[in-house]
Amino acid sequence: MNNNDILRRIRYTFEFGDSKMISIFGLAKLKVTREQISDWLKKEDDPAYKECSDTQMATFLNGFINDKRGKKEGKQPEPEERLTNNIIFTKLKIALNLKAEDVIEIMDLAEFKISKHELSAFFRKPGNRHYRTCQDQILRNFLKGMQLKYRPDNNKGSEVKAVKFEYNYKKKED
Question: pLDDT tens digit string along 74-131?
């Protein structure tokens, strides 16, 4: 997955407008313009598309943590120059204040099964013998599950289906 795709998915999931995106970058001390945001959110085949660098994405995620959890006292973390899926996954977990059970529940929403043991391997230091690289499929399913959990309009369709099913079931009983 590339940084632009992740940025698009987070923006969509939490319904962030341009102003909110700019403010999140600002919380991590990076001044960005509406044009930059717009260019990062474009599809790859658009001539105005610009790649969001690892440092810019790390800065956004640090700002997202500050936005969701509040700024911590003292020196703010420096954005990573090289991002991995493990780092992105960890930063999202921190921002949303998720425990392992919460992440497993989010993965279940995306119909992706993962054990607590498998999950913990993604959050270990790379030198640890139990460390495991987070593949795109894992991160993609986590982002999909986040969307299903946090995007307000995602559940409207299922509620309507449930009501229709209940109505049809009662109708057949009569």
Answer: 888 899 999 999 999 999 999 999 999 999 999 999 999 999 999 999 999 999 999 9
Give CA–CA dist 171/165, Å, rounded.
10
Tokens 């509620």, located at residue: 159
d(CA 153, CA 15) in angstroms, rounded, equals 10
Radius of gyration of the chain (CA): 19
Measured between alpha carbons, how far is 147 from 71 in angstroms, rounded to an integer?
Answer: 24
End-to-end CA distance of the chain: 52
Amino acid 33 reads T
Cα 3 to Cα 165: distance, rounded to the nearest angstrom: 40
Name the residue ranges covered by the structural domains of the chain: 1-83, 85-174
Where do runs of H (alpha helix) occur along the chain? 3-14, 18-27, 34-41, 54-69, 85-95, 100-109, 116-122, 136-150, 156-173
Give the global pTM: 0.85
> Which burial class, exposed, middle or buried, applies to 124 when counting CB atoms under 10 A from its CB (0-12, 13-18, 19+)?
middle
For residue 126, count CB atoms less than 10 angstroms from its CB and return exposed for 0-12, middle for 13-18, buried for 19 or more: exposed
